[in-house]
């Protein structure tokens, strides 16, 4: 079978099955059964599918997501979250869209340090989206920034994905990490600008109610009582990570523990709240992890059948100007990113793209950063952007997938704009590591 | 028949309960292991390994319950555009397809358990753990899921609401 | 002409994978019109720990993988892990033949060749290692990264505080001080950039890499005699060539590391002998126990270690 036939078969079956309304996880499993049958020699291919799913699921890297979800759910169901956001609301006065800004700033800080975009989407999503919806924010004002900052996690150091990319591509790990700092901050500022524009275009997007004047003493009291204790849970787990007491994968467990302790201190921990939190965290985790189980083999079938390799070789086979070649590589990454998970994509593209980038005369650190941006965007591209499904799980029930796509687009636009800036001014990435 | 139904439902919720316990176990095992390490003690290696296995058991044992709760996301595109009667047919058809997928996986899962037992396979991490004790979760999970999806084929309740968007 | 499909356990850019590609090229040159190998990819095509099962089940015909990735099916791989010989010697003394027989019997796969042998493991640390009065390594307080291959040694003998981490997480764990020591092969530290944090290499080295090519047995038996001969001859040649190529690479790596400030610390005398003794005996113990559980039993145990370990070479 030719690579394009394999590609058409695999992508066609997954898109078709999802379109007729099959649950996403089942659609992946069904497409895999077809693919395994065709490419892995019939019945025995299905055993391989199950073995692969087992291997992908029993990985410690997946531990933080349910725990961050648990942390956010406990925050919400014990009322600690409401308490904190009430206080922040009153402290920040009447700035329109203030909680969106809080999301970007807090999210940048947190996702950056945690380095896990799935984990931070899970945490911020379960923490912010229900609260912001309850306060009358339109959905895109909470969902968009969270999806955006989730992606920032892999650009600003520390970032496990950046380390892996540098290792595979044999470029300087430190330089690639440092190269991400300035572009990452620029991206965060783009996000802030986007929110500002959104509240300007549509003043009803965020509630702009009057806030009564408060004397300074009362403000400080509010800050000390309702904000600092909650914030300190975050600060403590970040400090534990930076201090080498826990790995980023382990930090989430302490976050959940910290919130539990806080809830005890504030006397708002009930059995009802615990049960609701566990059920809430479980619903999202089970949904997302069955997709992980199903999609594990899908990426592999794309590789094993030769479909993705064929696409890459075909696309990079043209003799084009360097800048056009960069666009081709970027487009291939975006296309694959719709259907494959990030690590498989790197394993597949790095051995082809980096030598090519070298012959085209690109700086490899700069090219590595562009590639990370493509990977970041692919986290939130439909149909297979796991962050989108995690977000769907934590958002209020009436949220549609369309709402989520629409929320994500402006923030994906920011990333694309950053890529353009990097092409025009490579020094944005290369200045810091060159010092 | 009714008694059988009650036993079945009880089993389904028992599995979901175990899944919830696994989620809490993730938290406990990480906290204990990190605390031991930072006190200069040797953390039990099974703390780490059991957390990895807990991810599998949690997902497999909880997934059938989530079918009943309509918690597995699907996209309503075609089903939203169809007129009522046709939509019901398509919805039941999709559910039937899900039943088929689950039955195939339950059957091959049982096959895999038999192979693991015959080959005496181990999953090797910090310990040598009999592989069948992991793969046994496949026939249980997909078997129960097949039953749950078949409720949307034959029962009064439909999986699809007919409203555009994505649903859980 | 027959075509065998193949996958490899490690990413394409890794030196060991490159060595496998050389083997494939040699087969494809020698086997023109008779037998060809078609590489379908690495861990992105079939998960690294699922590859051994995939070759057993005939989903792919050939896999290049460490034996440790199928330790559950074949504990005898520890004979290679603990070996102080290279594939050249074990091919000559019948050790490889024996391992091949065990592979055929227990897994239904042909063990075609043990590549990239003769590379051993060192313990690498951030801080200057300390020794007790008898010259033994003090591991108290050492935050050591481990994995299933060497935990029997690290935990049972050294009593170290082992932290299990996947390879991809080690860089940031070193950076943040979650771990400050790790075992690793003599080659490859620079590629992983861990030398940015690690400053000491402890000698002697222990263990050996256990990378090999396994082929589905039905597929193997179904090949023509000519195809089998070509594959086997090229594999034996590559066993030899890869030892030499990697020795050169190791010397280059060591020189580059030492230029970057890596210091070498040697265990001496009795402490050294105890260290090596512990590395192999803890692992052999594990192997014997697991062999005994299998219907095949542990009858081959003594012969197996005799073929893979030369006590006089220490
Ligand atoms: Na980061
Ligand atoms: Na995607």
Radius of gyration of chain B, CA atoms, in whole angstroms: 20 Å
Measured by residues with Cβ under 8 Å of the partner chain's Cβ, the largest interface is: A-B, 59 and 56 residues
Chain-averaged pLDDT of chain C? 90
DSSP summary, beta strand count of chain B: 4
Shape of chain B: elongated
Structural class of chain C: alpha/beta
**Distance, first to last CA of chain B:** 30 Å
Could you describe the largest sheet of chain B, including whether it forms a barrel? 2 strands, antiparallel
Give the neighbour order of strands across the main sheet of chain B: 1-4
Number of domains of chain B: 1
Helix content of chain B: over 70%
| Contiguous helical run count of chain C | 12
Strand order of the largest sheet of chain C: 9-8-10-5-11-13
How many β-strands of chain C, per DSSP?
13
Pick out the low-confidence regions of chain B.
none
Low-confidence sequence ranges of chain C: none
What bound compounds does this protein have? sodium ion
Order of helices and strands of chain C: EHEHEHHHEEEEEHEHEHEEHHEHH
Silhouette of chain C = globular
- Which quaternary structure do these chains form? heterotrimer
What would you say about this model in short?
The complex is a heterotrimer of chains A (435), B (168) and C (314). Chain B is mostly helical and 168 residues long. Chain B is built from 6 helices and 4 strands, in the order H-H-E-H-H-E-E-H-H-E.
Could you describe the 3D structure shown?
- The complex is a heterotrimer of chains A (435), B (168) and C (314).
- With 435 residues, chain A is mainly alpha-helical.
- Chain A has helices spanning 3-19, 24-39, 43-57, 64-77, 80-92, 98-114, 117-134, 139-152, 160-169, 173-179, 181-201, 216-242, 248-265, 271-304, 307-315, 322-339, 342-359, 364-378, 386-394, 401-424, 427-434.
- In chain A, helix 9 (160-169) crosses helix 17 (342-359).
- Chain B is mainly alpha-helical and 168 residues long.
- Chain B is 73% helix and 7% strand.
- Chain B has helices spanning 2-38, 45-68, 78-81, 84-119, 132-135, 137-154; strands at residues 74-76, 122-124, 128-130, 165-167.
- In chain B, strands 1-4 form a two-stranded antiparallel ribbon.
- In chain B, helix 4 packs antiparallel against helix 6 (137-154).
- The radius of gyration of chain B is 20 Å and the shape is elongated.
- The model of chain B has no long low-confidence stretch (mean pLDDT 89).
- Chain C has 314 residues and is of the alpha/beta class.
- The mean pLDDT of chain C is 90.
- The interface between B and C is medium-sized, with 17 and 18 residues.
- The structure holds sodium ion (2 copies).
- One sodium ion binds at residues 337-338, 378, 381, 384-385 of chain A.
- One sodium ion binds at residues 112, 115, 153, 156-159 of chain A.
């Amino acid at each position: 079978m030719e690579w394009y036939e394999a590609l058409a078969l695999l992508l066609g079956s997954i898109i078709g099955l999802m379109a007729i309304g099959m649950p996403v996880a089942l659609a992946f499993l069904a497409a895999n059964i077809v693919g395994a049958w065709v490419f892995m020699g019939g019945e025995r291919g299905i055993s391989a599918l199950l073995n692969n799913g087992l291997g992908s699921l029993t990985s410690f890297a997946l531990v933080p997501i349910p725990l961050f979800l648990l942390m956010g759910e406990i925050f919400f169901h014990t009322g600690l979250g409401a308490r904190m956001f009430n206080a922040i609301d009153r402290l920040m006065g009447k700035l329109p869209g203030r909680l969106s800004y809080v999301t970007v700033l807090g999210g940048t800080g947190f996702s950056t340090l945690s380095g896990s975009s799935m984990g931070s989407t899970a945490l911020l999503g379960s923490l912010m989206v229900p609260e912001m919806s309850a306060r009358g924010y339109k959905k895109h004002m909470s969902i968009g920034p969270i999806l955006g900052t989730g992606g920032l996690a892999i650009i600003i150091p520390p970032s496990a994905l950046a380390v892996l990319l540098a290792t595979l591509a044999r470029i300087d790990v430190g330089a690639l990490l440092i190269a991400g700092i300035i572009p990452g901050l620029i991206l965060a500022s783009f996000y802030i600008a986007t929110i500002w524009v959104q509240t300007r275009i549509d003043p009803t997007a965020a509630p702009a109610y009057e806030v009564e004047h408060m004397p300074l003493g009362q403000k400080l009291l509010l800050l000390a009582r309702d904000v600092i204790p909650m914030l300190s849970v975050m600060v403590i787990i970040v400090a534990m990570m930076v201090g080498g007491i826990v790995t980023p994968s382990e930090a989430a467990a302490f976050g959940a523990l910290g919130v539990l302790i806080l809830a005890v201190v504030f006397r708002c921990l009930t059995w009802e709240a615990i049960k609701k939190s566990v059920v809430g965290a479980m619903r999202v985790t089970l949904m997302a992890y069955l997709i992980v189980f199903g999609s594990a083999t899908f990426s592999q079938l794309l590789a094993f059948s030769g479909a993705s390799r064929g696409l890459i070789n075909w696309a990079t086979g043209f003799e084009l100007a360097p800048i056009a070649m960069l666009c081709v590589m970027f487009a291939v990454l975006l296309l694959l990113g719709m259907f494959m998970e990030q690590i498989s994509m790197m394993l597949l593209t790095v051995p082809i793209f980096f030598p090519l980038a070298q012959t085209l005369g690109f700086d490899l650190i700069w090219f590595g950063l562009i590639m990370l941006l493509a990977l970041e965007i692919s986290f939130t591209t439909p149909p297979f952007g796991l962050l989108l499904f995690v977000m769907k799980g934590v958002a209020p029930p009436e949220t549609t997938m369309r709402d989520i796509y629409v929320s994500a687009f402006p923030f994906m636009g920011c990333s694309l704009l950053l890529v353009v800036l990097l092409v025009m001014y490579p020094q944005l990435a290369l200045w810091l590591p060159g010092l | 028949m009714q008694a059988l139904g009650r036993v079945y439902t009880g089993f389904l919720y028992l599995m979901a309960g175990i899944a919830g316990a696994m989620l809490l176990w993730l938290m406990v095992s990480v906290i204990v292991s990190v605390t031991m390490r930072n006190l200069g003690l040797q953390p039990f290696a099974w703390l780490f390994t059991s957390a990895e296995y807990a991810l599998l058991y949690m997902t497999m044992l909880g997934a059938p319950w989530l079918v009943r709760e309509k918690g597995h996301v699907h996209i309503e595109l075609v089903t939203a555009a169809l007129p009522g009667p046709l939509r019901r047919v398509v919805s039941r058809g999709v559910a039937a397809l899900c039943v088929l997928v689950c039955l195939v996986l339950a059957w091959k899962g049982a096959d895999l358990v038999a192979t693991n037992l015959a080959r005496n396979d181990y999953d090797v991490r910090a310990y040598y753990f009999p592989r069948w004790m992991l793969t046994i979760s496949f026939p249980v999970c997909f078997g129960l899921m097949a039953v749950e999806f078949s409720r949307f084929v034959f029962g009064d309740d439909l999986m699809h609401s007919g409203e555009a968007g994505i649903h859980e | 002409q027959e075509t065998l499909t193949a996958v490899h356990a490690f990413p394409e850019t890794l030196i060991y994978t490159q060595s496998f590609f050389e083997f494939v090229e040699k087969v494809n040159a020698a086997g023109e019109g008779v037998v060809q190998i078609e590489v379908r990819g690495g861990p992105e095509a079939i998960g690294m720990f699922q590859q051994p099962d995939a070759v057993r089940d005939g989903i792919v015909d050939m896999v290049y993988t460490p034996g440790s990735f199928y330790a559950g099916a074949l504990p005898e791989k520890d004979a290679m892990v603990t070996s102080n010989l290279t594939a050249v010697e074990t091919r000559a003394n019948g050790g490889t033949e024996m391992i091949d027989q065990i592979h055929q019997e227990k897994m239904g796969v042909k063990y075609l060749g043990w590549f990239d042998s003769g590379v051993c493991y060192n313990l690498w640390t951030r801080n200057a290692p300390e020794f007790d009065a008898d010259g033994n390594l003090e591991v108290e307080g050492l935050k050591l990264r481990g994995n299933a291959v060497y935990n029997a040694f690290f935990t049972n003998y050294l009593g170290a505080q082992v932290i299990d981490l996947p390879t991809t997480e080690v860089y940031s764990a070193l950076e943040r001080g979650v771990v400050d020591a790790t075992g690793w092969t003599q080659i490859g530290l620079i590629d992983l950039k861990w030398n940015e944090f690690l400053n000491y290499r402890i000698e002697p080295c222990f263990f050996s890499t256990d990378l090999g090519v396994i082929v589905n047995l039905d597929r193997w038996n179904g090949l023509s005699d000519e195809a089998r001969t070509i594959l086997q001859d090229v594999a034996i040649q590559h066993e030899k060539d890869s030892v030499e190529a990697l020795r050169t690479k190791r010397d280059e790596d060591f020189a580059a590391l030492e230029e970057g400030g890596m210091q070498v610390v040697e265990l001496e005398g009795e402490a050294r002998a105890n260290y090596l003794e512990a590395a192999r005996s803890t692992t052999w113990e594990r192997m014997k126990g697991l062999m005994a559980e299998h219907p095949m039993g542990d009858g081959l145990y003594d012969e197996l270690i005799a073929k893979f370990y030369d006590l006089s070479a220490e």
